[in-house]
């Protein structure tokens, strides 16, 4: 459903060029949990941002549901981002002075969903992530794990096909991280989930697939639960 073909993304700053993505080719299935590992500066976040439609690639192609994005206009990228993508981050990115339901509704303001429907979808999503009893609170009344659940509710409320996670447990203790990973693993049964992480133990335990980046290139792509990987 999502395929990157010889994708390149270079950053030019002054006289120097950084090859953030240097000929990346990879296919993702409709429902799988992919962990992206690799040293700092290896291109992980750049790939997530390109897949999420936040950044544009320079050359190559990204195929979405069989369709090339080479000729996508800004409006096409906006529609793709608003309808097909959910994003979660290490620091939750919640708005402190808004209530929890309003935070979740905010994720749908650009999606063309009516106000009533946004409210219903927000409530449904909060119930799905286990926050049914906390819906009338504000973010600062919640624990870190609960705040990440709100962020996950916001990301999935409009039922995107793809959930992109940038260090989702980076600010959480081990016990809470495990609970959040259980939730994300559940979501990967119905979506493509791509997660950048610095935590190889969590990645190996939870993901169906480990992709390692180095210097803007994919160095390996394997199934952690297969004892004798092919090739
Ligand atoms: P990672 O997520 O693996 O740490 P990034 O994708 O953030 O790696 O960065 C890949 C490379 O691209 C790094 O060398 C980084 O410094 C560079 N880079 C990322 N974003 C920019 C930018 N906006 N301008 C210039 N260089 C950037
Ligand atoms: P990460 O924790 O994912 O590695 P970074 O700290 O590398 O993130 O980057 C944080 C932000 O700064 C990103 O949005 C990235 O695009 C930007 N960035 C990274 N490297 C550079 C750079 N050399 N010049 C400008 N922006 C950069």
From TrEMBL:
It comes from the Bacteria. Signal peptide: none annotated. This is Sulfate ABC transporter ATP-binding protein. It comes from Amylolactobacillus amylophilus DSM 20533 = JCM 1125.
């Amino acid at each position: 459903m999502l395929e990157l073909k010889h994708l390149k993304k270079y950053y030019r700053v002054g006289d120097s060029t950084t090859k953030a993505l240097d000929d990346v080719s990879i296919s993702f299935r409709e429902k799988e949990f992919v962990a992206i590992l690799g040293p700092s500066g290896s291109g992980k976040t750049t790939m997530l941002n390109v897949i999420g439609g936040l950044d544009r690639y320079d050359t190559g192609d990204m195929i979405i549901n069989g369709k090339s994005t080479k000729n996508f206009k800004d409006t096409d990228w906006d529609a793709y981002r608003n309808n097909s993508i959910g994003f979660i981050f290490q620091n939750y990115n919640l708005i402190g002075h808004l209530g929890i339901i309003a935070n979740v509704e905010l994720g749908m303001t650009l999606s063309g969903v009516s106000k009533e429907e946004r409210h219903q979808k927000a409530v449904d999503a909060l119930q799905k992530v286990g926050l049914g009893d906390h819906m009338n609170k504000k973010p600062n009344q919640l624990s870190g794990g609960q705040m990440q659940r709100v962020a996950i509710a916001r990301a999935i409320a409009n039922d995107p096909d793809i959930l992109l996670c940038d260090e989702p447990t980076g600010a959480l203790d081990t016990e809470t991280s495990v609970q959040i990973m259980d939730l994300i693993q559940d979501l990967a049964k119905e979506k493509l989930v791509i997660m950048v992480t610095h935590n190889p133990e969590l990645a190996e335990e939870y993901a169906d697939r480990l992709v390692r980046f180095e210097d803007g290139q994919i160095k390996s792509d394997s199934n952690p639960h297969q004892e004798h990987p092919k090739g």
